[in-house]
Amino acid sequence: MSELAETGLTVRGLAVTARRRRETVTIVSDIDLTLARGEAVGIVGESGSGKSLILKAIMALLPSGVTATAGEIRLDGTELAHAPARAARAARGHRLGLILQDPSTALDPLMRVGDQIAEVRRHVVGRDGASARAEALELLEQVQIPDAAGRYRAYPHELSGGQRQRVVIARALAGEPEFLLCDEPTTALDVTVQAEILSLLDDLRTSRAMGLLFVSHDLAVVSQVSTQLLVMRHGRIVERGATEQVLTAPSHPYMRTLLDSVIELTA
Ligand SMILES: Nc1ncnc2c1ncn2[C@@H]1O[C@H](COP(=O)(O)OP(=O)(O)OP(=O)(O)O)[C@@H](O)[C@H]1O
Predict the structure, then answer these.
(1) Is 62 in the pocket of ligand 1 (CB under 6 A)?
(2) CB distance 222 to 43 below 8 Å
(3) 215-251, pLDDT tens digit by residue?
(4) 51/67 Cα distance (integer angstroms)
(5) Which terminus of the chain is more solvent-facing, meaning fewer CB atoms within 10 Å of its CB: N or C?
(6) 27 close to ligand 1 (CB < 6 Angstrom)
(7) How many CB atoms within 10 Å of residue 40?
(8) DSSP character for 107?
(9) If you measure from the C-alpha of residue 50 to the centroid of ligand 1, how many angstroms do you get, rounded to a whole number?
(10) Is the ipTM of this complex over 0.90?
(11) SS3 of 31, please?
């Protein structure tokens, strides 16, 4: 693996292809992005534009039949995309965390939520049992689970959807990731809970100087948490820039359409 004197998570020229029947089709191409610690990059675009596959390529979680065929993915200069799987996994370690849309499938239904977080503290950070449990409780408090001490012993089905997503976030934080990748993390939640989770992610990003890569089809949601915005269409980035700039002076016609639809919804 080559080392370069660069920091953060960088993706250069990423292309992802999939086998469909006997054909190989390109799903995303020419993807460039840079994520520094403490920064939040949002990726917005219509369903099927390839947002999720970018996150999966970074996490080395592409489904079978789908391959990253070009480009580089670097973590502090260390190349991950072309490294042998084991070496790349070691380099990623727990420096990257992932949060998905549906919190109910992300948690073990048969394990108390506090223990699921404590387990990460034990195995990833190397804490003993008592410290791991104490720190798991602190994390539940940090993600603002009401009555955290009581809820520590709850099973996932005993919590609301919003509380489950908070537990998922706490468990991701337990591994002390430097970069948190979120794929539609609030789409399954109602609007009020969604706003609370977005504000929580924003607070955690700044308090932990964590990089946030946030994917959603919803422009209003993405712009709320992102300092930089990438707009995708048909597998390519068609617009990019500081969130404020993209929102106020979009150059691509698709971005203007997206903005109009948000304005219509909020009018
Ligand atoms: N396992 C797979 N095999 C073949 N094609 C796939 C596979 N997974 C996704 N795709 C295709 O890749 C394209 C991009 O999918 P992706 O999930 O990244 O889109 P997305 O922008 O995240 O959309 P959504 O918001 O609906 O999740 C879609 O056309 C999808 O059909």
Answers:
(1) no
(2) yes
(3) 999 999 999 999 999 999 999 999 999 999 988 887 8
(4) 15
(5) C
(6) yes
(7) 25
(8) S
(9) 6
(10) yes
(11) strand
